[in-house]
Hints:
The protein is of the alpha/beta class. It has 18 helices and 15 strands.
Amino acid sequence: MNELIFIPLAGLGHLVSAIEFAKLLLNRDDKDICISVLIMKLPLDYGVQNFIQSLTSQPRLKFIDISLDEKTSSGFLNNHESFLYDFIDSHKSNVREYVQNIPRLAGFVLDMFCTSMIDIANEFNVPSYIYFASNAAFLGLCLHFQALRNEQNLDTSKYMNSNKELSISYFKNPCPIKVLPKHLLNSRIASTLFFDGIRRFKETKGIIINTFFELESFSLQALMDSEIVPTIYPVGPVVSFARSGHFRNNPSEIESIIELLNEQPDLSVVFLCFGSMGSFEAEQIKEIATALEHCGHRFLWSLRRSPPKGKIDIPSNYNNFEEILPKGFLERTKGIGKVIGWAPQVAILSHKSVVGFVSHCGWNSILESVYFGVPIVTWPLYAEQQMNAFLLVKELGIADEIRMDYVIDFEGRNNRVDVVNAQQIESALQRLMIKSEENEVRKKMKEMKEKGRVAMEEGGSSYTSLGLLINDVIKDIS
Length: 478
């Protein structure tokens, strides 16, 4: 049997999506391909270790730990700017050692940050593919700025803090610079290394994207018409139903949340959740609480404690919500809303009582929302999430906004704390609750849900694209 090597980044959004895609590929091809997923454990947990420990190999899908020892791995943290790329490069010998014992090597499927592993694929004379866990618009944006920097020698840092808009061929509308990821604009070492990796995309046999043509037809068509990229394979929406727990909640906690939702009327509950890295300081929490209490709608709010100042870590659960919420809030909203810690997101979004999703706009969360037809209210925090919010609101029309340009300052470089006021939050929630037949965002999201389901069925756009990928992989072997 022909073996594909998957090398994902061990961040939750990257790893879970890559594994779900591996399962999708194997379910489609039942005889020619097996997959080994090589796991490189990061020295910082970021909530991944529990998930990794839950992974069990099965026929045709193996999980291979190629991690370095803890001391060596942690040593890379000393160089903050190049940490991620040095860390990935340091695993090359372990990858090489595993791969050299494979009798029939079919190729490599690499995370967008793992492009240095193309060197190993070349050594063994097999093709490499990129698994791009974000969207087509972001891929286009990365390619656009890579060309500006590396081919036109443009100093993109001149755009920093600009209020201008740019015409970019992968977007229908002019794109505000303020929603662009900062690492596309600055001239720091990490940014340079990022674009060195993007440039190597052109060396691969193809780019697999977790999206579907009906969702991002404009961006995908622009990519497919471009001569600067290899074959594009849209295969989404790839959604992990296992994300309901990630083994952080015990079953009774999940059960109590679902029981609560079961007691609510259909399309009545607003769900607020901001991802594995999402948290707010006390002043912002007060504004959210004020908005929820004043608007009077049913809500389920995943509220997490921020890490200590200056410490890079994931948020944690509060022992007592009363220590951070306005005095009497829990009592006054009893029977209307509930505040929880870490949330079983997929289980909640799939529930018939949920009417909308106030989200940080991570791409996996967006696809989950699309899959279940739940309209989004955008509140991005970091990475490419501001651009995702722009895509949802302005390009696709399947979301409303609290903000599109909100950014969390993880490094504490900005003394001014950006606080969204309660009135702005409440206004977005009131728009979300407009009756279905009058709500264009809700109508468009419902339509996109159906298109996403059809895309994955036999004859659908993503089903066909996945078939083309499998054929291309097998053709290269024979």
